[in-house]
Specification:
175 residues, alpha/beta, Molybdenum Cofactor Biosythetic Enzyme, Chain A, six-stranded mixed β-sheet
Length: 175
């Protein structure tokens, strides 16, 4: 890591405020039952363990209007830094998270998806070709769209989101 990157990371915020939206029609239809949300719980626990705050966590269906409403809710939430959408990023026709969020982004961070697939390739081989992940910024907030499988969530959160979110926020707050 370059000296500049080290300096930026060391002077970044240590406790960020997150919103987590799980995009899954099947989970949404079962949300009143006592089914475990393995991926959502992993995200929440990993972020909390790292000292971050979870301000919002919701399960929503894979519906364009619900994803847009969740995005707006996160963008309007006071002092929120990061919004994570988990799920709905596959290649099934009902997987529309990325297509719904992308038009709202002010800037896309293509390296996020590139690194996500690179790390995934090392773990799962050429099946990483099917992985779609996205990061971008809106109104000085970082937006992530990640797959919902437990392994993909672990990769995205541990290897990318936890390591770079504060650094990204530092740059966004400088302007």
């Amino acid at each position: 890591m370059s000296k500049t990157s080290q300096e930026h990371k060391s002077s970044s915020l240590k406790n960020l405020n997150f919103a987590i939206f799980i995009c899954s029609t099947s989970r949404y239809n079962q949300k009143n039952k006592k089914n475990k949300d393995i991926s959502g719980d992993f995200i929440q626990n990993a972020l909390s363990k790292a000292g971050h705050n979870i301000k919002l966590k919701k399960i929503i269906a894979d519906k364009k209007n619900l994803i847009v409403n969740a995005l707006k809710e996160g963008l309007n939430y006071p002092d929120l830094h990061v919004i994570i959408f988990s799920g709905g990023t596959g290649i099934n026709p009902t997987d529309i998270t990325i297509e719904t969020v992308t038009p709202h982004l002010e800037k896309i961070l293509p390296g996020f998806g590139e690194f996500f697939r690179q790390i995934s390739f090392k773990e799962i081989g050429t099946s990483a070709l099917l992985s779609r992940a996205l990061a971008g910024v809106i109104n000085k907030k970082v937006i992530y769209c990640i797959p919902g499988s437990p392994n993909a969530v672990r990769i995205a959160v541990e290897r990318l989101i936890l390591t770079e979110s504060a650094h990204i926020i530092k740059h966004l707050q400088e302007s």
